[in-house]
Design a protein that fits this description.
The chain has two helices and 17 strands. It is mainly β. It has two domains: 1-32; 37-267, Exo-inulinase, domain 1 (Jelly Rolls, Sandwich), CATH 2.60.120.560. The strands form two sheets. Strands 1, 3, 4, 6, 10, 11, 13, 14, 15 and 17 form a ten-stranded antiparallel β-sheet that branches.
Length: 268
Amino acid sequence: MREQRFWIYGILLMISLFSCKKNARVDKNAVKEPEWTQIYNGVDLSGWKAKIKGYPPGENFGNTFRAEDGVIRVDYAAYEDFADRFGHLFFEIPYASYRLRLEYRFLEPQAPGGQEWARKNSGIMIHSQAPESMSEDQDFPVSVEVQLLGGLNEGEMRPTANVCTPGTHIRMNGGRITEHCISSTSETYYDDRWIHVELEVYGDSLIVHKVNGTEVMRYSNPTIGGEFNTMPEREGEALGSGYIALQSESHPIEFRNIGLLNLEKRKK
């Protein structure tokens, strides 16, 4: 009787161990984290290249873009006057389909000589031309801009993660958009808190903006053309890939936790 009991216990133990092993294997396969890459290392600007109006690609005038305390800081301490020296910091690899997420916050004060419209105004350029293809005195790259704004006056709406179109057109709600900037449905943020922005970019078929986890805008079919187009020979060409760049428009801003999920890589 005792031997029979031990035999039964042994069978039950084997069934239990097999079941646990099987469940563990299923759980391991089910919980597969996306392959996000931090494209800013938090230490220096390796992999990034500055292009500031009036200077050749790679010359970071006045140390405008700097790596400090784990953030990329856009700073104007060396500027006596901004003098329309619009700048962009380009990541070295172009992409077509990806998700990009980062946090940003505006600081004070604005650089001397900065335009009123540029107060608490910056951006993330996507599907951008390469910095080497820009002329020395070019203001903005041909690209789609995810415009980042901060609130100025309490009670005055100024949403963020809007879309602007330097040298491009887009389609939204079934129609072609030729206006330079379109506002999103985001809240207005008046202080210096960190704001989380995420983009979903699917070539030239769909682009989605999210702020603090909420979708605030979507559009499609970016093409080259319109205001600020410095490549008239490519007018009407679909814009399905390009570089990512962080903007300098005269107001200090910080970026951190810059992560990218390459959707093209995940398809392979």
